[in-house]
Write a structure and sequence with these properties.
Length: 218
């Protein structure tokens, strides 16, 4: 099954995508994670993307689309993928549809997670991420057993550069503007499902799986 998690920064796309990957047995593709890896490794793509990401702006379509489609059309995603953070613009959505159609595939479900802005800001500014394995924590709602250290690999927890309140607000504004035409497109195509992302993470997972239940996993 090819499905897309869409929603504002901090709504829980990454958290839920990891759970759906386990539940459905398909890979999770996060363009944010891929881009952060390019930045950390100092690749030409990372160098071109870094300033946009620091400001909370989108990385230009031309840079992101090729990177994302390469993974989406690769053998590991042949039986499906949970997309997290791509597509984010109409141009990216069109490129994705064309590419999937060309491979006899299609986006079967688009899950739109929502939550109030105050909730999103609390989640973003309190998020801490493992510098080693990337596992995500939160200062209030998902504390590690040892403060500042990852439960899984023991590496130190860091704050993402774009999780300051100022940049988080900029990211929320970009999302509000860019997502409107995307949501309209998927609503018209009959694949859009709205899910309340403000509940406890287990509840959100249950709701997502309930929405997906009528879709056969292939
Ligand atoms: P990206 O990494 O995709 O960031 P984002 O969309 O802003 O989303 P986040 O990762 O911040 O939040 P999330 O919804 O995944 O929430 P999470 O599960 O972590 O993109 C970063 C940047 O890369 C962009 O700004 C852009 O520059 C660039 N980029 C990426 N893709 C691009 C594209 N296609 N085109 C152009 N540019 C692109 O949860 C957040 C926190 O809340 C965590 O601490 C978590 O533990 C906690 N939490 C989650 N769920 C719950 C819950 N239900 N209850 C309580 N706490 C919760």
């Amino acid at each position: 099954m090819h499905l897309l998690l869409i929603g504002p920064p901090g709504v829980g796309k990454g958290t839920q995508a990891a759970r759906l990957r386990q539940a459905l047995g398909v890979p999770h593709l996060s363009t944010g994670d891929l881009l952060r890896r390019h930045v950390a490794e100092g690749t030409p793509l990372g160098a071109a993307a870094a300033a946009h990401m620091r400001r909370g702006d989108l990385v230009p379509d031309g840079l992101v689309t090729a990177m994302a489609l390469d993974r989406i059309l690769g053998p590991s995603s042949a039986s499906g993928v949970v997309l997290d953070g791509f597509p984010r613009t109409l141009a990216q959505a069109e490129a994705l549809d064309t590419a999937l159609t060309g491979h006899g595939r299609r986006l079967e479900a688009v899950l739109h997670l929502t939550a109030p802005e105050q909730t999103l800001l609390r989640r973003l500014t309190g998020r801490r991420t493992c510098a080693g394995c990337g596992e995500s924590y939160h200062l209030d709602t998902r504390k590690p057993r040892t403060p500042g250290r990852c439960d899984t690999c023991g590496q130190r927890l860091v704050q993402r550069g774009d999780d300051t309140e100022e940049t988080a607000r900029a990211r929320l504004a970009v999302h509000a503007e860019q997502s409107r035409p995307l949501l309209a497109r998927y609503r018209l195509a009959g694949v859009l499902h709205e899910v309340d992302g403000s509940a406890d993470a287990d509840d959100v997972t249950r709701r997502l799986l309930a929405v997906l239940a009528p879709h056969p996993v292939r």
